[in-house]
Amino acid sequence: MHQTESTMDECRSLARTGSIEGTVVSANFQGAGRGRFQRLWLSPSGENIQASILLRPTITQLPYLNMAAALAASNTATEVTGHHSEIKWPNDVQLAGKKLCGILIESEISG
């Protein structure tokens, strides 16, 4: 997708219409991206990966999802680059002291 208001909102809409777990929504630019506490999050077009991934965890898995995502991103960054990465809790991964990624989890329970 070239542009969207929010990959998270697009992903939520797909989830509500039955899209499968693992569906990825990405965009070169999002006009209304958000971070923690609904803060506006913008980045220049084409400079960052802006993506949301649809997961369907069980209610017992949900509390651990942020920790698992941060550990997976940090371990992958270290393995790929050969440099130590760090988790800046609760939702950032840093490499060489600079933010590599932010993790935002929003949930909606149905059924």
Element layout with pairings:
Blueprint: E1 3-4, H1 7-16, E2 24-27, E3 29-30, E4 50-53, H2 65-81, E5 85-88, E6 92-95, E7 98-102
Parallel strand pairs: 1-3
Antiparallel strand pairs: 2-4, 5-6, 6-7
- The tally of strands reads 7
State the distance separating the first and last CA atoms: 30 Å
* Structural domain count: 2
Helix content: 10-25%
Q: SS-based structural class?
A: alpha+beta
**Mean pLDDT over the full residue set:** 90
How do the strands line up in the largest sheet?
A: 5-6-7
Helix/strand order, N-terminal first: EHEEEHEEE
Number of helical elements: 2
Question: What's this model, at a glance?
Answer:
With 111 residues, the chain is of the alpha+beta class. It contains two helices and seven strands.
Structure in words:
With 111 residues, the chain is an alpha+beta fold. The protein folds into two domains: 1-56, no CATH class; 57-111, no CATH class. 24% of the residues lie in helices and 23% in strands. The protein is built from two helices and seven strands. Strands 5-6-7 form a three-stranded antiparallel sheet, covered by helices on one side. The longest helix has 17 residues, at 65-81. The chain is globular and about 40 Å long.
